[in-house]
From TrEMBL:
Keywords: Cell membrane, Glycosyltransferase, Membrane, Transferase. The keyword Mitochondrion does not apply. It is found in: Cell membrane. SUPFAM superfamilies: Nucleotide-diphospho-sugar transferases. This is TIGR04283 family arsenosugar biosynthesis glycosyltransferase. The keyword Repressor does not apply.
């Protein structure tokens, strides 16, 4: 039977979280009629990511490193009518399958979930609120929000751009030209580690600055150099 949904998880040294991510993804669709496949795309992990993922995923494949490349590799292998791109440190809500069934019944083009950021800082709920509100207003989704898209549409607009940063923003811009996203309340829960490790306010300032410069036309390659030198 052709899968209804392919969940594609790009991973790189995610041994601490990959088993929980896969287990929660499987559990979130168990009480539905969805036929789901889980695909982990590893970008060269040197920890136990692959060995932990193999018993839990339908496929574990390898790809050149880079989130966009890994997700495109997974999409090329996937058989689902819809594709959902899930970060390895992000978990789907327990009723994700039921929320998605409604979307698929309506044959919606694409969408994403609201996000909740886990961590100790009191600012993280504020960050999540800002992300969700901005997304609803602009139609731009981020990878942390577990973007999903009809497979034929994803292929027709050229998949993720082969760039090292802002691949989610770039995909959203092309998808918006076809349809506004469905914004599911979710929420998915993502790790706040990158926010807390370098300071929440500093991370907010960095991400807004990079997005502004990308909107102004700076290359993703140049912005990625700055991002990776900071993180």
């Amino acid at each position: 039977m052709t899968p209804t949904l392919s969940i594609i998880i790009p991973a790189l040294n995610e041994a601490k979280s990959i088993d929980h991510t896969l287990q929660s993804a499987r559990a979130s669709v168990r009480a539905t009629d969805l036929n789901v496949e889980l695909i982990v795309v590893d970008g060269g992990s040197t920890d136990d990511t692959i060995s932990l993922a193999k018993p839990l995923a339908d496929q574990v494949i390898e790809s050149p490193r880079g989130r966009a490349r890994q997700m495109n590799t997974g999409a090329a292998t996937a058989q689902g009518k819809y594709l959902l791109f899930l970060h390895a440190d992000t978990t789907l809500p327990a009723d994700a399958g039921k929320q998605l069934e409604v979307v698929f019944t309506r044959k919606s083009a694409w969408g994403r979930f609201d996000v909740k950021i886990s961590g100790q800082s009191r600012m993280l709920p504020v960050v999540a609120f800002m992300m969700n509100t901005r997304s609803r207003l602009t139609g731009i989704a981020t990878g942390d929000q577990a973007m999903f898209v009809r497979r034929d549409l994803f292929e027709s607009i050229g998949r993720f751009a082969d760039q090292p940063l802002m691949e989610d923003i770039e995909l959203s811009k092309r998808l918006i030209e076809q349809a506004r996203p469905v914004c599911l309340k979710g929420p998915v829960q993502t790790s706040g580690r990158r926010w807390e490790s370098r300071g929440v306010w500093r991370t907010i300032a960095l991400m807004w600055r990079l997005r502004w410069r990308y909107w102004r036309g700076e290359s993703a390659d140049q912005l990625a150099k700055e991002y990776h030198s900071w993180v």
